[in-house]
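In keeping with the milestone schedule agreed at the kick-off meeting, the structural modelling team has produced records for the first pair of proteins. Each record is given below as a sequence line and a structure-token line. The laboratory manager (R.T.) confirmed that both were archived under the project's standard naming scheme.
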Amino acid sequence: MSTRSDKPSADVPLSDLIQPDRGQAATTIHLVTKDGLEAWLKPRSAATRAAIAGQKFKGEAGAHAIIPAEGGDDYAVVAGVAGTNLDSWALARLAETLPGGTYRLAPADPACNVARALIGWALGQYRFDRYRKEAPTEGARILLTAQAKAIAPAIAEAGAITLVRDLVNTPAEDLGPGEIEHEVERLAKLHRATLRVTRGEALEREFPMVHMVGRAAGRSHAPRMIELEWGPADANFAHPRVAIVGKGVCFDSGGLDIKPSSAMLLMKKDMGGAAHAIALARLVMEAGLKVRLHLLIPAVENAVSGNAFRPGDVLRSRAGISVEIGNTDAEGRLILGDALTRASEGVEGVKPDLIIDFATLTGAARVALGPDLPALMTRQDATAQALIDGGIAQDDPVWRLPLHEAYRDYLKSDIADINNSPTSGFAGASVAGLFLDRFVGEGIDWAHFDTFAWRPAAKPGRPKGGDAMGLRAAWAMLQARYAG
């Protein structure tokens, strides 16, 4: 997208891509299943049947054919879908490939629910063209739907996902800690939230691990802790507090335990957790969810210089827990430790009912689950199940990994309270989760997403590059838990 999360490549606002069907002129899209194609063709004209045969259209999900129009239109479209209950990506390929124009879905089975598929229609038109001299100029594809109540939620979620994509896709030179601060500031102004940014000597004093990880970066990318506080207009202390935390490592060189160049190539995406947290906070505020929201983003660059923190150093933390550094490339858990401690403290004695954190934390999670499935760790089974159910309902699957108590031994240090990077090589994602668990307040419900935030290969509606993974699952859970 050429501007922040609001317009596709044709400079049409997201909110215009899906509109209520009021009988406007539009090209018709007929949805058919593979098994239902023959019955659909039976009453059609010879020209339609010939067009279908000539394009070798068999009704497979994701395929489509152009057919002669009925009723004076230039043409119509017949598209294959897997069933009447459309998933989020059922219409995404159409949105990517059809000519620019306005479309409507033909009347179908009353059981056909297009609500989820609307988001794929919008996201199928996403392009990140900030650095292109000549951006693509194809016209926008606008979809008319009779399910008008589904439009606003779909546009809100599509906007949140495109925000994640835009942030993750932006190179580190143009998206450092300061730019993340500006993004949160923009949201704070829009939703009348309170913004607090801690930097410099105050950061060293209040969030010592955030300071230590980020102090080697240049002045333009100086570390900081970014906090946003928000509540709806009628909020009071009866509303539960919810804290959302995101790992904001804007670039990760690995520090003195420097990464090889091949591993460093994608490290602009190491702030993907922060992007998810900001996008989820945006959804909460836009919907006016009945919570007191606390967003926390520790924003740093893990750089190499003479004052970089070293393997073997022992760091102080906000929680008072001393941390021996086994590897400077395990920096994300350090900054999250201070942020989770702050989140657990709450405000004026009111502690959070729930903490959710997002982080591009471990390669071990990707080895175990691949790029598509975020690893989920929680203290409470019910919270895990609610997030899993939300992911299934929204086509945003997550997979739970254990916080196995016996693995805490891997975090032992000979000289400090805890080590940030055990040498065992076993259960890396779970052990990282157990490290974070030490910094979450006792008895607080907590969920941790170890997400990749990057799509290595394109799928309909999901181009190669930065992407939101676990965001819709978390949003579905929050709505179910706090909507009332």
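The second protein of the pair:
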Amino acid sequence: MTNPVHRALSAVTSRLSLATRILVLTAATVGFVLATINASVYFVLRDELVHSLDDALLQRAENAVENHTTEDIIRGYQPEALSLGGVQVGVIYGGTLFKTEALDDLAAMQYVSSVEREVALGRSEHSTRTARINGTHYRVVAVNAGSGKALVLAQSAESIYQSLRRMNIILWATSGAGILVAALAGWLVASTGLRPVRRLTSATERVARTQQLTPVEVHGHDELARLGSSFNAMLAALDASQQRQRQLVADAGHELRTPLTSLRTNIELMEQAFASDRPLSPEQRREVMDDVHGQLAELTTLVGDLVELARDEPLRRSPEAADFATVVEAAVDRVRRRAPGLTFDVRLQPWMFFGEPFILERAVINLLDNAAKWSPEGGTVTVRLADGRLTVTDEGPGIPPQDLPHVFERFYRSSEARTQPGSGLGLSIVAQAVARHGGSVTADSSPGRGAVLTVRLPGWSPGPDAPIS
């Protein structure tokens, strides 16, 4: 069950700003430390002063006992040699107090207590205590003088207590000033330290209100500067994501426009033919329907590629490993059925990986489809897999040097590729699928000697001593 005091403090502090809480915490901490120091200084100094006074009184009492001053006091003499200056002197003998003339009425004010009588009886060598007599603080010491006697000295300690009171006032005044300075310093530190946080808060509110991803200014190299840099990096990543999203939408709209326009044209043509007195001939209808089927197939492929590219969820790694060679072999079998006029030269070595085999199979199919599209009739597509390195080589015209840096970009199509069917998304899907598995893909080509596409996939050889990572 929560402490009511804790709940009350939490309720109060929750309504304060962070800067105010820092100010209060700083002032409270400094106040506690100064109070502890003040108390320690006060009690230590008081004990030192009192002990010094006690030592002086005890030394005087012992010297007086050695000089037989107690006997003189009992006989009623007061030698002039006994000049103790403000020290009250008395002797306890047989339970009776013998006093000097300077003692006056101190006996009536309980100047002597049972403590001094215990010293007179020899039960202790000496005693010290503080007595308040007539409103004045006295330190009273007693020294055993033998034969049932004790010499008692008392001296005013008012000067000590006055000094302590003055010192106490100075200490607490200094502590109050220290607390005020600490509170001011806490406020300055909180205001200065939280300024970057306020800027980040304003920037976040501005982004939420205006959708403008303007980075914030970053100064210094401390933790708050790192926070600002991280915030700017997040804004940059968000801006890049938005740019990619807008580019994807724009490119998708551009690519979808062609098959949709063709479908609309064919449909309008058939409507006009049905509405007129001159219907289409069987050959014309077949030609129109073939064109419609082709456009629908291209549209279906394009939509599927767009859906694949739009997937932003992280890779779900399965605890079970998969063999990349099996994935490549399945992809080759599917493409071989679609391209019966080509020869596929395949040599695969096992290579284990963690990931999603379906996604990689789709990527390998795109690689093989690209090679099959550019290979001449009766040509050979060479597929090799060794040590996690997959190469697909065709016998096509190759990729021009100016197009090599762009072949994996979305919707990019070279001038030669624009005469071929396709949307320009196949190799983009390959790059995305391989990157999601921690790998990389590159393209190399020499004009007239075909293209070589290489996929490097992290994993391990399924040998008996191979690590699983």
